[in-house]
Amino acid sequence: MRLTLAAALLALCSSGPVSAATVIAKTPDGMLQGEVVRKLHVFRGISYAQAPVGALRWRPPVPVPKWSGIREARKFGPACVQPKVRPGSIYTWELPPTSEDCLSLNVTAPADARGAPVFFWIHGGALTTGVGSDPLYDASELAGRGLVVVTINYRMGVLGYLAHPQLSAESADNVSGNYGLLDQIAALTWVKRNIAAFGGDASQVTIAGESAGGLSVMYLMAAPSARGLFARAIAESAYMISTPELRSRTHGDLAQEAIGTWLADKLGARDIAALRAMDATQITNAAAGAGYLPFGSVDGKVLPWQIVEAFDRGEQARVPILAGFNSGEIRSLRYLLPPRPADAATYEREIRARYADLATAFLERYPATDLDQSMLATTRDAMYGWTAERLVAKQTAIAMPSYLYLWDHAYPAADEHGLHAFHASELPYVFGTADKTPPDWPKVPATTAERTLAAAMTDYWASFAREGAPRAQGQADWHPYGRERAYLWVAEQPRSSTHVLPGMYELVEQVVCRERAHGGIPWNWNVGLALPPLPPTAHCR
């Protein structure tokens, strides 16, 4: 039953004194108390759903019941259970407390927000690590440009993506896995129902994410049950790799149910009950140690198609998109590279054996004369460059405004460590959080030029969320991809250009087309020297 204004005031008074630094949001489910921070209303740790835990583990999220009185929303919720990140990673923070019951979100809104567009952020971390409360994602700058910003937690790793025949048998739809993706859909559903209480417009939601967050954006664009929950999309350094199917071994991947059965055996669990009896942290660490990699499942229900097929069929969400990648993506992700060959002759010989009639075009783009740079560029282009251009090309084909960028920005601390424009290095500029990067992150200098670039990036992202077109006052025009294949090149400052890395997209598209036609080869980081011999020419568009 909805609270009357008198009842709300009575509940507020009975809850004790409230300082001038707090604010109340009256949602359809109950009242929440947040904080006023520099003309922003900040609400933290809001439960958007309940994660079934323990003996109920590996089920879809459950709606939160309505409540009476006022709930505190001034502290971040716990992070979802995850393995510790390896020491020395530039992405590592001291992990906050974790819990299996972790489905919370945070809202930062202008104090005067009324019908404001919503920026819905999905953190990265290989669907294995990360938290929405990461200081890097501080929402103050974006909210200061008129957005209501939502950051979320979602189940990850084995707790978020395990599929298993016994779990499928429990489901009314006879499917399993994709629990982390269902969490994201539940969070978007919460936004649709509740965001007006914070001054947001539920019809103007932009989903956005980087790395695994970008992968999640593509999953959401391909998921029928997410349709209508967002109006725009931003995918930073997303990767459109092959996704295992629930029951079929396709594209060189084991079926997800078979992976679940293998993992249970590996962990000495005779059935799902035994897996549910394991402690959440114990099973998360054990699964990661066994080599389990979380991905969505193509199950015919949550994800009906491979991502590439959904976009080829025109069955993705018909929304404007902003997508891009970084020139130095792999410089901080060198574990994705195959072993370096003994010499240039070995490299060229292996490439010719693997790429067949495409080898000459490959070696023109990735020559043996600079092995390190060629190997970095090969994996970057196959995972991130091709994905970004494919996203904007496919959305352009269905008449959706689409914007492409290449982040190629240099600053001294990054270049000193060989990390020019590394993976995720655009984030402190997008969020305006150069002073909130992890301890081992190459520090962004506090110069006027860096602050100006950061302000431009935040403006581009915020204007896209507001209007569907990225703009920044006093900066280069960002033209839609269109027939000219326009993009924004961000080096020392943004510049308009066309045809990013000419020939890159066409070459990778040909390779992936042949792998898809063959049916037994996945497309991910198994490129260059790691590519299985490429099948003969297929009928590729």
Radius of gyration: 23 Å
Low-confidence stretches: 1-19
The number of strands is 15
What is the SS-derived class? alpha/beta
Distance between the termini: 57 Å
What is the CATH architecture assignment? 3-Layer(aba) Sandwich
Shape: globular
Largest sheet: 13 strands, mixed
CATH C-level class is Alpha Beta
What does it look like?
The protein is α/β, with parallel strands linked by helices and 541 residues long. It has a single domain, classed as Rossmann fold (3-Layer(aba) Sandwich). Helix content is 33%, strand content 16%. It is built from 17 helices and 15 strands. A hairpin with a 3-residue loop joins strand 14 and strand 15. Helix 11 packs across helix 12 and helix 13 crosses helix 17. The longest helix is centred in the C-terminal third of the chain and has 27 residues.
List the main descriptive attributes of the protein structure presented here.
single chain, 541 residues, alpha/beta, Rossmann fold, two-stranded parallel ribbon, 15 strands
Q: What is this entry, summarized?
A:
This protein has helices at residues 5-14, 140-143, 157-161, 165-170, 179-194, 212-222, 256-266, 272-277, 280-289, 307-312, 344-355, 359-365, 371-397, 412-416, 427-431, 448-467, 504-518; strands spanning 22-27, 30-37, 40-47, 70-72, 79-80, 98-99, 104-110, 116-122, 148-152, 200-210, 232-236, 321-326, 402-407, 486-490, 494-498. It is of the alpha/beta class.
